[in-house]
Specification:
Length: about 375
């Protein structure tokens, strides 16, 4: 059996290397199965009095199922009518769309699984199901805005369900402004399953992947067109300001020219945020009239546009999200934000300037890259620091 043990050890080392794709992993597993058959056949002809090998066998396998829940360190899946809860604190999360409710995933593990007893196995990585026949679809949900902050959008659907979506770094366009009671369309991936129900007709969409939000469907931002030169007193002006926070129909910003906070209404003017409304990021306020340095009195705001993260260098990206650490895996940290959603952040090659030690319960501020966080709900991050 030395041949089998050696083959298993080689497979284990190749999986631990971390650079394997899903196809490569399955190829390794198939290759291992072939090796097991070959070695078993040859061993049956060996003499019974041969000395047993002292090498420790390494068993690798996978379990495929539907992703139900995740709390930062434990991942729950359903497979063949059984529910499995894995400790993934030392496991890599490598699914294309991140951790998305209802996604079909594979748990690659070391050890031998017996029934639902997972005490004898160690998960190595969570990946997409190989040859997934039911990939995640783009979905649209229409609802009335109940509240909107930098990280959370709460809507009431046409069926009376209350749904909370994470909108950190998400593209948003409101042609006629945004306020409570307005109808919007949320484009997302994932499904609302029993595990996302948090109250009577209340759903937590933290583990969906929101693509965009708008008051038009489909989302279509009109191209800029030349306008006749206005009268001198009505000449359009631009005020660059940093976002402090968002509260449904208003946004608090700090203009670069003054350094003092300014509250701006979002309720009746076109607003477009390609990289979301994250604190620390910048907006361009288009207005006529005069800015007195203290309030919007004397200003007629014509529109508000967020910066474009696609054209910013990494050192100029300042979008942040702040929250309490719920748990970590080998390559992620899960935060609970102050406005009620869970945000999953990649730790891959990210400088940690915080004093948290990534301990559960500690507060953490994350600078993230919206341009590289559009496909997966595992956010691509730039740095970690104390709030």
């Amino acid at each position: 059996m030395k041949k089998l043990s050696a083959a298993c050890m080689i497979l284990g080392l190749s999986l631990f290397a971390g650079g394997c794709s899903n196809d490569q992993i399955d190829d390794h597993i198939i290759s291992l199965q072939d090796k097991i058959s070959d070695v078993t056949a040859s061993d049956s002809t060996e003499q019974e009095d041969q000395e047993p090998s002292t090498e420790e066998r390494v068993y690798m396998d996978e379990l495929t199922g539907t992703l139900l829940d995740f709390d930062g360190t434990h991942l729950t899946i359903s497979s063949n009518g059984e529910t499995y809860v894995f400790d993934v604190s030392q496991t890599r999360l490598e699914c294309k769309y991140g951790v998305v409710s209802s996604d079909q995933v594979s748990v690659i593990y070391q050890g031998q699984l017996s029934g639902t007893d997972i005490s004898t196995i160690s998960p190595i990585k969570i990946t997409d199901k190989y040859h997934n026949e039911t990939p995640l679809e783009n979905r649209t949900l229409k609802g009335k805005v109940k509240s909107l902050t930098s990280n959370a959008l709460v809507i009431v659907t046409e069926k009376g369900n209350t749904v909370t979506f994470p909108v950190t770094g998400v593209r948003q366009y409101y042609k006629k402004g945004i306020k409570a009671g307005k109808w919007v369309y949320v484009h997302f991936r994932g499904k609302f399953i029993n595990e996302t129900l948090v109250g009577d007709k209340q759903y937590d969409g933290s583990f969906t992947k929101v693509i965009s939000v708008s008051d038009t469907d489909p989302l279509k931002v009109p191209a800029a067109t030349p306008t006749p030169s206005p009268e001198p007193k009505k000449k359009e002006q631009h005020l660059r300001a940093k976002i402090v926070n968002v509260s449904t129909g208003t946004m608090t910003v700090i203009p670069q020219t003054t350094g003092s906070e300014l509250t701006v209404s979002l309720s009746s003017v076109p607003v477009y945020f390609k990289g979301g409304m994250a604190p620390g990021s910048y907006v361009n306020i288009i207005y006529t009239g005069k800015f007195n340095g203290e309030s919007t009195s004397g200003m007629k705001i014509r529109g508000i546009t967020g910066e474009d993260p696609d054209i910013l260098s990494v050192r100029n990206i300042t979008s942040t999200v702040t929250g309490t650490i719920l748990g970590t895996t080998a390559n992620t940290v899960l935060l609970q934000t102050y406005d009620g959603v869970k945000i999953l952040c990649s730790r891959e090659n990210v400088p940690d300037l915080s004093s948290s030690g990534m301990e559960e319960g500690a507060d953490l501020r994350v600078t993230f890259n919206p341009a590289k966080s559009r496909t997966s709900n595992i956010y691509t991050c730039i740095k970690f620091e104390d709030p």
